[in-house]
Amino acid sequence: MLETSARLLRLLGLLQVHRDWSGTELAERLGVSPRTVRRDVDKLRVLGYPITAIGGVGGGYQLGVGASLPPLLLDDEEAVAVAVGLRTAAGGAITGIAETSVRALAKLDQVLPSRLRHQVDTLSSAMVIMPMPGSTVDPSTLIAIASAVRNHERLRFDYISHDGSTTVRDVEPYRLVQHGRRWYLFAWDTGVSDWRRFRADRLSMRVPTGPWFGPRPLPAEDLADHFAMGPTANGHRYRAVLTMYGSAAEVAEEVPPTLGVVEPVDDRTCTLRIGSDSLDHLAVWVAAFGFEFDVREPPELVEHLRTLTARLQRATRP
Fold it and tell me: Mapping DSSP to helix (H, G, I), strand (E, B) and coil, where does residue 264 land?
């Protein structure tokens, strides 16, 4: 039989990894009587853990939501995952998350066993975390969006588009998506009756939230692929269509799906659809892919490639 303190920790661990337990199941796991389980539950409640009783035959227990965050129990793999995640988040794109992550990591690192600290240090030494330039998004904005997604509540917000114009949007929020270094809201825009994505760092929430809405089917089962392909069709200031002189399989090896969509034409050519807010980015990307290509649209990219070519020729003069 476990000692009382060890048994309380074991009981807490069981409650944290399972939605609900019957009293009989907990007693069997701990090797004690149901009466002892009831006493141990009462002790955890005194310590601040919100454990609720579940009715029914035999009764049961569930770890609920409390007024404050009680200590959590993590197994070895969970502790390593949290520590590595905190180190990664220290370079994240959420306002203030770096400082918060460092504080939380300092607390966790202090209590990590040496064997786990070695695993975390090994993983961290092999990782290179690039700093995140540009604008960041406030955590309260992400929390508000996530809450509206969960509760099926419409959102209203002011949105700044890539050209600097501001509009008021009314949407049904469905997903909060991290794509690259940015956060996006994927939603049904009631104003245009179509699916749209919005950069979270460009929107300012209006309160309160709107009325409840009935969820509609998503436009694709694999929303990640759908989202990755979307920017090439809309959402960017410049959208290029190119004929690539290489097979679709060869070009797809060089063009990640988050950057462009490759469509086969025949065994030796394919179409590449790619978008960006910068003509410089488009010009450098298509030149670096390693294939001969023709620009079908937009005409601005053709002129920009001529300008860039002349600039590079001047730079290589003796």
Answer: strand
- Residue recorded with tokens 């759908």: 226
CA 178 to CA 199: how far, in whole Å? 10
Terminal CA-CA length for the chain = 84
Distance CA(174)–CA(152), nearest Å, equals 8
User: Exposed, middle or buried, 112 (CB in 10 Å: 0-12/13-18/19+)?
Assistant: buried
Q: What is the DSSP letter of 201?
A: G
Between CA 170 and CA 210 the distance in angstroms is: 8
Helix axes 76-89, 97-111, angle to 10 degrees: 150
- Which two tokens mark 32? 């004690």
Report how far Cα 70 is from the mean position of its chain's Cα atoms: 26
pLDDT tens digits for range 258-286? 678 888 999 999 999 888 878 888 888 88
DSSP letter (8 states) at residue 203: E
User: What's the residue count for the chain?
Assistant: 318
**Single pTM value for the model:** 0.52
